[in-house]
């Protein structure tokens, strides 16, 4: 069996795959390579899965995405081919949760101002210091990543509130709310963290009225998808100082254009979609792939992180 891998892998990982699966031939090429037409499995980050690639992959049966999102794929075309699609959901939880917690702590302890004062050699002991212990955090999308940031926040004494459509309990959430409870909850929380995927239900879900309902002292963080809130809505909220600070790791269009006002807003932190990056990213992805490849070769029917391609997750 031939497998085309477009994800850059270090030599020791390639050797491990070859030794673990001696009956499989791995090809490390770009998606447009001729091996695409002969391969049964494609392992990719996903940014090279175009309509042309789908059309040419005549023998493909399984698409392994070494990331979580599939919203930019030609979904209907892939669904027509009835491929098995799996992803690396769950591998981002540790780096992303650490990043979110780091931003919340940094802003609460005045680190941006402390660092700026250091560069300017300013001795100023009036930098505001806020404790997060006893605060409330609303986590939009308390899944794998949300439950991990919930765990970390709880360790700091933060009361965690999870938001999903069903209201069903989620790990490391002190309480759960549903959409009809959102507006009543916003005035009570000190931080709002969005980790929601991009779906028809979540696209541009967040409006100015949501910022208006929040405390002026609250922090808003978007680490899910850039189309959760329009840039113009964020800018209006920042200009009106509806919240204390906004942290964005994702944007409507990436990279963020150079003339965007977000770069210069002192109450906004621009993070270039790096919260999920980690030195453990590839090893964790490959571990999931290896487990699924064993099941695939054994002709099992249940896989880790199987994706409903039309739902997007």
Automatic annotation (TrEMBL):
Keyword entries, A-Z: NAD, Oxidoreductase
Keyword NAD: yes
UniProt domain D-isomer specific 2-hydroxyacid dehydrogenase catalytic: residue ranges: 3-300
Keyword Transport appears in the UniProt entry: no
Domain D-isomer specific 2-hydroxyacid dehydrogenase NAD-binding per the UniProt entry, residue ranges: 101-275
PANTHER family: 2-HACID_DH_C DOMAIN-CONTAINING PROTEIN, D-ISOMER SPECIFIC 2-HYDROXYACID DEHYDROGENASE NAD-BINDING DOMAIN-CONTAINING PROTEIN
Family in the record: Belongs to the D-isomer specific 2-hydroxyacid dehydrogenase family.
Protein name according to UniProt: D-2-hydroxyacid dehydrogenase
Natural source organism: Savagea serpentis
């Amino acid at each position: 069996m031939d497998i085309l891998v477009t994800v850059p892998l270090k030599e020791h990982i390639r050797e491990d795959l070859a030794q673990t699966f001696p009956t499989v031939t791995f090809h490390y090429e770009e998606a447009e390579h001729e091996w695409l037409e002969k391969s049964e499995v494609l392992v990719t980050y996903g940014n090279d899965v175009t309509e042309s690639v789908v059309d040419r992959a005549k023998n493909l049966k399984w698409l392994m995405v070494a990331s979580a999102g599939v919203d930019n794929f030609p979904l209907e075309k892939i669904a027509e081919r009835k491929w098995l699609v799996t992803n690396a959901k769950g591998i981002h939880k540790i780096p992303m949760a650490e990043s979110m917690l780091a931003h919340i702590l940094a802003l609460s302890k005045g680190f941006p101002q402390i660092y700026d004062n250091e560069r300017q050699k300013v001795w100023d002991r009036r930098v505001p210091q806020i404790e997060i212990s006893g605060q409330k955090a609303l986590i939009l999308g308390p899944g794998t990543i949300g439950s991990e940031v919930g765990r970390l926040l709880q360790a700091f004494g933060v009361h965690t509130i999870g938001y999903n459509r069903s209201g069903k309990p989620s790990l490391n959430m002190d309480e759960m709310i549903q959409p009809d409870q959102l507006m009543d909850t916003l005035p009570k929380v000190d931080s709002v963290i969005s980790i929601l995927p991009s779906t028809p239900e979540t696209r541009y879900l967040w409006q100015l009225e949501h910022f208006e309902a929040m405390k002026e002292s609250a922090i808003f963080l978007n680490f899910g998808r850039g189309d959760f809130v329009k840039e113009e809505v964020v800018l209006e909220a920042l200009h009106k100082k509806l919240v204390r600070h906004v942290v964005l790791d994702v944007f409507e269009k990436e990279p963020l254009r150079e003339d965007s006002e977000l770069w210069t807003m002192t109450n906004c932190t621009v993070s270039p979609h790096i919260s999920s990056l980690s030195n453990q990213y590839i090893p964790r992805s490959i571990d999931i792939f290896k487990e699924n490849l064993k099941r695939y070769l054994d002709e099992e029917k249940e896989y880790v992180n199987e994706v409903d391609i039309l739902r997007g997750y």
